[in-house]
Design brief:
The structure is a single chain. The chain has 477 residues and is an alpha/beta fold. It has two domains: 4-57 and 357-476, Alpha-Beta Complex (Aspartate Aminotransferase, domain 1); 97-343, Aspartate Aminotransferase, domain 2. Helix content is 45%, strand content 13%. It has helices spanning 4-7, 9-34, 61-71, 83-94, 111-124, 141-152, 171-179, 199-208, 233-245, 270-276, 281-284, 315-326, 333-343, 353-378, 403-411, 416-428, 455-476, and strands at 45-46, 135-138, 161-167, 183-188, 214-221, 249-253, 287-292, 306-311, 384-385, 394-395, 398-399, 430-431, 433-434, 445-450. Helix 7 (171-179) links the parallel strand 3 and strand 4 (183-188). The structure holds pyridoxal-5'-phosphate. Residues 50, 140-142, 170, 221, 225, 253, 255, 292, 294, 301, 306 line the site of pyridoxal-5'-phosphate.
Length: 477
């Protein structure tokens, strides 16, 4: 079990502390550069977060125009804005109390936007019905995820609640479960098989929890963060079957559903596959699926808009979920608007369509280019190996570090990949996220890098990375 009992709360907190040290140092270096301190680089490039606009990807004009008109309604009369932008803003303002984006909304979100999301889901899933009452908008999907963990984790019980989570895993997930008093039951993704999720491994993980905790839920990410794998329909069916047999609540984190790069990969939602599997499974497996305006082509993570859709959840629990979400009054209104624009983009024939199409195509091409370049470059340098990134927002290359470097890291009281990342930051001004923060498999080293960045930025990143890495490997070989 990879819970507090094994790693220890202090060690885990230390891991988070170490990360803070890395980010604090980055801030300090930025200040030093401003003060004119000489370094081998002119600026720090931060690719440690999944922040598309922070990485230089331009916001979509349609999104910003509608938001601008919503926030400043005088623009509704401006002929500088396309007709469909003004109409959409007008429609959205009509749904806001007092025709203002500065007002509270219903707890689940603005009903018109929630209904629009359910229509989007139905369309995406080829007609599988979606009901507005089962959807909750939140200020970012992380908030929804946290609320569902609150429902699942019994912090009072003597036997701790267990949640199966992948290794490696998006860091905030394990943190949320533990903060609530639960434990994580790690299942390892198979790195050499492109970070595949394997059912035998889920079985092994569940067996390992016997007598230790009470497993109630299974958390999956498709596409994966930081691992970039995309599940096949068959794999999703197997996971649902497993959840059904073991009576586990299924949490499907699908925030990267628009980010698919592999030629043979396609995104299929858990909700769709569940419906296709038919009764009794389709009527019994409890599912929460998450989506967000933070990633994908819209990439508006700062606006904070996400949602959860719940399927087959008991009505009494749904009531409690309502109460939980109401503790935050309502989700950020700009985030809700972003969700409306993400789920209802301009259509062919609309005045905004051609620019929207041009901008989204450019982002798509950039991301596909980036994952290919990272794969090609890193796999050509000794000491790195990188699985193909089929989807998502990150690459998670493996570091094959010399023993001397591992010893040196130990002496410095660091994990080997942290040691590498600290040196990378100091010497090349590149900030990446060490694999230890994602609770990678013991004895391996990785780092996570954001690929949702401009092509020129990526080229600069790769140059700095390869040059540093070559020197580092020479120094410790
Ligand atoms: C897998 C995954 N889920 C959820 C989130 C949270 O996204 P947000 O709260 O911005 O919607 C992230 C953010 O990086 C993520 O990578």
């Amino acid at each position: 079990m990879s819970d507090q009992q094994e790693t220890g709360p202090t060690m885990r907190r230390l891991s988070q502390l170490e990360s803070v040290v890395l980010w604090n140092r980055a801030r300090q270096i930025k200040r030093e550069l401003k003060q004119g301190v000489k370094k081998p680089y002119r600026e720090v490039i931060d690719i440690s977060w999944g922040d598309p606009q922070g990485g230089g990807i331009k916001p979509l004009s349609f999104v910003r125009q509608v938001l601008a008109a919503c926030h400043y309604p005088q623009l509704l009369n401006s002929d500088k804005l396309p007709e469909d932008v003004r109409q959409r803003a007008e429609r959205l303002l009509k749904e806001c109390a007092g025709r203002s984006t500065g007002s509270y909304t219903a707890t689940q979100g603005i009903p018109y936007i929630v209904k629009g999301i359910s229509e989007f889901i139905t369309r995406r899933d080829g007609g599988v019905p979606s009901f507005p009452n089962n959807i909750y908008i939140s200020s970012g999907s992380q908030w929804s995820l946290q609320n569902i963990f609150i429902i699942l984790v019994n912090s009072m019980s003597a036997v701790k609640t267990g949640v199966l989570t992948p290794v490696p895993c998006y860091d905030k997930v394990n943190m949320s479960i533990r903060e609530l008093g639960g434990v994580t039951i790690p299942y390892y993704l198979h790195e050499d098989q492109g970070w595949e999720l394997q059912i035998e491994e889920l079985n092994r993980a569940l067996e390992s929890a016997k007598g230790v905790c009470n497993p109630v839920a299974l958390y999956v990410m498709n596409p994966g963060n930081p691992t970039g794998q995309v599940q096949t329909r068959k794999s999703i069916q197997e996971v649902i079957q497993f959840a059904s047999e073991k009576k586990l609540f299924l949490l499907a984190d699908e925030v990267y559903q628009e980010c698919i790069y592999g030629e043979k990969s396609e995104f299929v939602s858990y909700k769709k596959v569940l419906a296709e599997m038919g009764p009794p499974i389709s009527e019994t497996v409890e599912l929460a699926s998450f989506h967000s305006a933070s990633k994908g082509l819209i990439g508006e993570c700062g606006l904070r808009g996400g949602y959860v859709e719940l399927v087959n959840v008991d009505p009494a629990v749904m009531e409690y979920i309502y109460k939980l979400f109401s503790t935050d009054s309502c989700a950020s209104v700009p985030g809700q608007i972003a969700l409306n624009l993400m789920t209802h983009p301009p259509q062919p024939g609309d005045p905004s369509y051609s620019l929207y199409n041009e901008e989204t195509q450019l982002i798509q091409t950039t991301l596909i280019h980036n994952v290919r370049r990272v794969f090609e470059v890193l796999n050509s340098v000794p000491g790195f190996s990188c699985q193909p990134v089929e989807g998502g927002g990150f690459a998670f290359p493996r570091l094959h570090l010399p023993l001397n470097a591992i010893h040196k890291a130990k002496e410095a009281g660091m994990q080997p990949d942290e040691f590498y990342c600290v040196r990378l930051l100091e010497e090349s001004g590149l900030l990446v996220n060490p694999g230890w923060n994602f609770e990678q498999k013991e004895g391996t080293s990785h780092f996570r890098m954001n690929i949702m960045i401009k092509e020129e930025t990526l080229e600069g990143v790769l140059r700095r990375l390869v040059s540093f890495h070559t020197k580092f490997m020479k120094e410790f070989s």
